[in-house]
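Please check both lines for our workbook:

___
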Amino acid sequence: VTAAYEAGVTTVVDRQTAASDRILVETLRGALLEDPPTDAADDRSTVDATADGPVIDATGDRPTAERPADVAAETPTDAGDVGDADERHRRILDTVDDGLYALDSEERFVAVNEAYADLTGFSREELLGRPAAVVTDRLGGDEIDGLRRALDEGDGAVTLEADLPTADGRSVPIEARVAPFTVGPGDVGRVGVVRDVSERRQLERELEGILERVTDAFFAIDDDWRFAYVNERAAALLERSVADLLGEHIWTAFPEAVGTAFETEYERAVETGEAVTFEEFYSPLGAWFEVSAYPSETGLSVYFRDVSARKAAERRREDRIRQFEALNDRVQRLADATTREAVCEMTVEAAADVLGLDRSYVRLYDEESGELPVAARTDATPPDVDASLFGDASTGPVWETFIRGEQAELSGLDSADADVDVGGLAAFPLGEHGVFVTLSSASETFEETDLLAAELLCANARSSLDRAARESELRRQRDRFEEKNDRLERVNRINRAIREITQVLVQADSHEEVERLVCETLAAIDPFRFVWFGHHDPATDDLRAVASAGDDRGYLDDVVVTADDSPTGQGPAARAIATGAPAVQNSILQAPEFDPWREAALSRGFRSCVSVPVQYRDTRYGVLSIYSNTPNTFEEMEVSVLAELGQSIGYAANAIERKQALASERSVAFTFDLPDLDAPLFGFLDGSQGTFELENVVRRLDDRVHLFFTAHDVGFDAIHDHAEASPTVEHVTLLADDEGCQFECTVRETTFVTTLLDRGAVFETITVDDGAATVSVRVPQDVDARGIVRLIEERFGRVELRSRRELDEPVFSRGEFEREVRSLLTDRQTEVVETAYAAGFFEWPRKTNGQEVAALLDVTQPTVNRHIRAAERHLLGLLFDDREQP
């Protein structure tokens, strides 16, 4: 029964009856078409002209309607033959169990058999000659209209299924097959076969009941691979409705099954005619199915059930075996871990890889902070998950597990972070070291076997942490001892070198000598391998080596070092120039910014380097780069010592310049025009909207500078207001206002004035007028005049050099006289006399008195008077005596 239904009872019956229906329809057509033409004078048949249409005679043998001429020409004309044919057709029609009928072109019954009359509840006589509407009106109008359209549009038989109300009040389920036939030119009638399908309907209902009672999922597909039947269980497992599946092609409904065992096994069953049984996983549904497929002539019957739970249990059993084998292997590896970090990493990896606890982490106790920071966690573990669960990791259940040393398991947790899906937590103590924690989602729970396996893992992790802690302490003690010795030895070597360099700096007479001797001394220190000293050219941003020492093997010839934005300007030397601070590269191998020089450096054994700026105040003399043959050579202590060395070299370089300036009998005078006044000092002057002329510059012992100006076309109040707003000016003091406004200006920080003074320059004039400034400076000829020009260009950008003059002085020059005077005066005496002179103390009438000069210097008036009198005595003695008076 099931095999019959699997491809659809309707389909089976249709196929079994289709051939007989065609035979019956053709027989009925033959019975109508083989009659000879009707003769109006023939006494065996009559035509009732008053009737609604042609009728069968009293015997019911044949119709009396006229027949087409072409058919009549082919039919027998002998009356005996005709009678025999009529009798033969009548016997055939009456012996058929199915109802047969014929309609003429006006849809009137011209032939019916007894089975059709019984089926409709009419007698044969009640139907013949009457319109078909006496029967069809009992059916739905839509069904009849659809039948007519199908006959008009097609050229073959049309099948109709309906419930037929009969004349005697019954309702009979029928199946009718109707076909057209030609009655005459332009006239088309119809013939049909009608059968009672009550038994078939009952069979369908019984089969449906049987199949619905089957506990397994079941569906049937026909030979076109379309669903002919699907029970509710199957629809539920396939997550589709029965209505959606019926009539659907199986591979269209489930395209993901193409190419899987479902397709290959079903096709094998159909091809071989043998039943198949198999198990297969269907990924779209995430389920395993056990399938049995039984082929038949009309399709395939498939029984299947969801065996995912059984497969999962089997997998769990197999997984447990593999899990404990793998866990044993991981436990043995834990014994080889030498650090606490390694133990923690291996523990969480084992929890995730072996136990499937992919959200696990270890918190180790930190004695310094008294907290339990995370030491290792799996990638799937949310960061700061304890805080999202408990608000404070130091007071929650993880901390309680550590304090009490007892395992804890929590469920029903609610995370404050919506993105953290956590429902359960299991915490395992690791002795004095910390806690192992694993998490479950809100939809999961821990299995007992997982917790037992995790407990075993943690017991071994605790033992490994104990051993690692002992070994780590031993290593730390040994490393500290070795590091301390190495560091002390290195610092001692550097200090010895610095003492040597200090002696060199004191005795050096030129920059070249300082640079060469510094490189040679440092290169002799182990582990320093190579040292070079470079100058920065602001015009090209090139860093040019002017001195080097050590085992470089042509390193400087193979590399290009700049201080610009290109890749060759990103190294330590460029950073030291740009920032004025040491730049360390403790791993040449790993530093991306060292790419342009890495190959050349590594091939020569360089592993780390440091670049130290050499400068004095704002004056940069270059950069000192030191290379070591070991990584991480330049730690904080070494860098600090080398930074002080760079400052010492800068101070020595400045002292050499000052010495050269004092000893020089020739000088060069420059006059510059500055169109853009962006320096703070000039901005203050220009903002006062007047004309300013520099009268003198005095540098105090604390490096603060007093500038003495004469201003025209502006009052002191305006100057004072702009000074208050200036970030550079500390204060201004009015000295006199008789011939212009004479005032003193003290700057609070380094300016370009102090920078030029450091280079041995002497300011002759500074004039500020109408948004522009003119600066005249004189420098000794031995000083790098181009460096002075670059310095001004760097500070002010666009600079116009108005003039350059070389000056000769006599044998007893002003410079020599000045050196002699300064050699006799103390620094304090020089400061007081220069300030008093610049303030107009020595003019007549005096512009300032002793009390006002004392106020400028923050000293008492007697101190000013004493220093001025002593300076006068030294000066007059130099002029008038052969020797200095005490």
